[in-house]
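Q: What does the assembly look like in three dimensions?
Context provided by user:
Components: four
Sequences:
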Amino acid sequence: MPADRAPTRIQRKNRAAILEAALDVFSSHGFRGSTVDQIAKAAGLSKPNLLYYFPSKEAIFNELMAGLLDTWLDPLRALDPEGEPLDEILAYVQRKLQMSRDFPRESRLYANEIVQGAPRLHDVIAADLNVLVEEKAQLLQVWMDAGRINRAHPKHLLFSIWSLTQHYADFDAQVRTLMGDEDPFDAAPQYLETLYRRMLTPIS
Amino acid sequence: MPADRAPTRIQRKNRAAILEAALDVFSSHGFRGSTVDQIAKAAGLSKPNLLYYFPSKEAIFNELMAGLLDTWLDPLRALDPEGEPLDEILAYVQRKLQMSRDFPRESRLYANEIVQGAPRLHDVIAADLNVLVEEKAQLLQVWMDAGRINRAHPKHLLFSIWSLTQHYADFDAQVRTLMGDEDPFDAAPQYLETLYRRMLTPIS
DNA sequence: CGTGAGTTTGACCAGTTGGTCAAATCAAGG
DNA sequence: CCTTGATTTGACCAACTGGTCAAACTCACG
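A: Here is the predicted structure of the complete assembly.
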């Protein structure tokens, strides 16, 4: 285990390689389905060498998750109370969709955990996420009360955005099989834009 | 292994108990994360006894999946070309939502597999599901061309319905945490009805 | 109540897995 | 070049896992 000092060049490189490899392996086999050996090999290290940098399989997972969750919620944090409501929401949808395209492994890693009841995530969800969701749901409610977007259950609206955008990452295997040659991400932005525009444009 | 004759009373009872237990265990830990012992205990049997009824862990899983997929696609099959397009689609959405409420474990089992790249499902998806989706996507296209519902990418429309409805089962842990006391299924039907009505009602 | 098929189990096995450890190797500053 | 701390590794361990097997038990039926 590296000492408490500033990390050496090698430490930085190897820890990064391990986390990258772990993302790959964990996101495609889940926590239980992944082995330390798999991760080590993917990172180009031997198993004991990997365990020299991280004390345990779970430590790798936790560090990965902690780093992930922060960036995962950034798009929602960026929802601006001062902006034009419909534009803000549509932009949020596109940002989220973009993340599914650019970081599908992160999305699947998160999905894997939640589907299995979030045994290693309950605390974080109950704390950080809950606060953020309450805040943004209230913002949506204010916009609706002011007649600037159509009425809809604010939390269900947020759920639907997560669901629709992450679907393209989480169910990638299914989506690609059914779309054949067509790239799902060609039509998805247009489809979601239309959906939420029709859904939310105020009917005077 | 029971002989090839008609199953005895005990065989029927135990095989059913095993499949029920397996659904529970597989859906909350995934295939790799589940152990035969867990399933056996949940079914009230010893491990060797369980393996007397099924030749292997994978055999249990396969039988479970085969039985599941059929009923899973029934709601889509029921989409009636002769019906009123908007009503048909809205009814499909509600049927699918109902399944998420009544059979969340089945939904999660399926989700678990797809998220991990569907290693044990590729064939089925490529065959049965693909045919059904092509057929129904074409039906949607006909309805759109006739101006009976708004235009939208037919396959993305189907994906969105799956995504939004299954979300309540697959991400149950997250949804319930964020909804607090409120039952997600109270407002979900209304929310989805509104969403698809606004989205699809033809703008003359 | 006896008997043969159907059912159950304890003991066991080989392969895998997370993790340890002492010894070997390497890298950088003096 | 040599020392010292950082890095790497082969050998190893205990726990777990999927699966086997022969022996024991139970049940329905004549």
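Follow-up: The CA atoms of residues 27 and 106 of chain A lie 7 Å apart.
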